[in-house]
Amino acid sequence: MAVIGIMSALHEELAAVLADMPDEQRVVVAGRDFWVGQWQGYAVVAVLSRIGKVAAATTATVMLERFGVDALVFTGVAGGLGPGVSVGDVVVASGLVQHDMDASPLFPRHEVPLYGRALFEADAALSAQLAEAAQQVLQSAEWHLGPDTLAQFQLSSPKVHQGLIVSGDRFVSTNAESQALCQALPDALAVEMEGAAVAQVCWDYGVPFAAVRTISDRADDAAHADFNRFIREVASRYSRAILSQWLAKRPPV
Ligand code: SAH
Questions:
Q1: Nearest to 77 by CA among 90, 60, 86
Q2: Structural domains in the chain?
Q3: 95 beta partners
Q4: Ligand 1 shell residues, CB under 6 Å
Q5: Which protein residue has the closest C-alpha to ligand 1 atom 18?
Q6: Where is the Nucleoside phosphorylase domain (predicted)?
Q7: For residue range 60-80, what is the model confidence (pLDDT) as tens digits?
């Protein structure tokens, strides 16, 4: 049976996923708790990636080497960069780039040395399934979040986007920094701190990877406001609903 790996960067999101997994067993590797169990009839391993590229790469490597997952999905939050990518929207990665990789002039900016590429593509089929699941969840956002939360965060008609996600070891929280990112990588829809590292590890192993990120902020001067409450009340509910919907509809393998 295919084993699905699920990685989240934040505690609240992982807790929401684990709440749906009956009888999961904890296996500790590299100081991390890997939760092995079942969800919607699939064998699932769920883990907290921790924050940042190195922590996420280590976690992904253990997922692949020790638990032999057949596909890896990252769920988390991100800062919106692209025009029209608003708080409460969901971005499904079509590909990922490390925005802080720069070995120029030896290699073009953003290219990962010795890989001959900056972009690590997400698995197209997996990403299409997740985008469809996200679409369905967002269509009934009020049902998932409740009208009060919707109003508090001013989430009117949240949207699903598919495109470039960029990752780096910085919480982007100034207008100047987010503008510089948009200039350097004009196609970027969202910025976070783990995805491109996990995509690179999955590329090394030839294992399909996908990333789903709820937009928690606009990576600007207001990026820290209400961050934790947003994760608790919006992002973790979306993550659980989107992944659950995806697994329930996923074609059997
Ligand atoms: N307040 C949190 C820390 C969050 S760090 C805590 O106390 O644990 C930010 C996390 O959200 C990272 O996992 C990153 O991937 C994502 N993220 C959300 N908005 C971001 C932004 N504007 N820039 C970079 N990463 C962001």
A1: 90
A2: 75-249 (3.40.50.1580)
A3: 121, 164
A4: 9, 51, 76-79, 171-173, 191-194, 216-217, 219, 223, 227-228
A5: 78
A6: 4-242
A7: 999 999 999 999 999 999 999
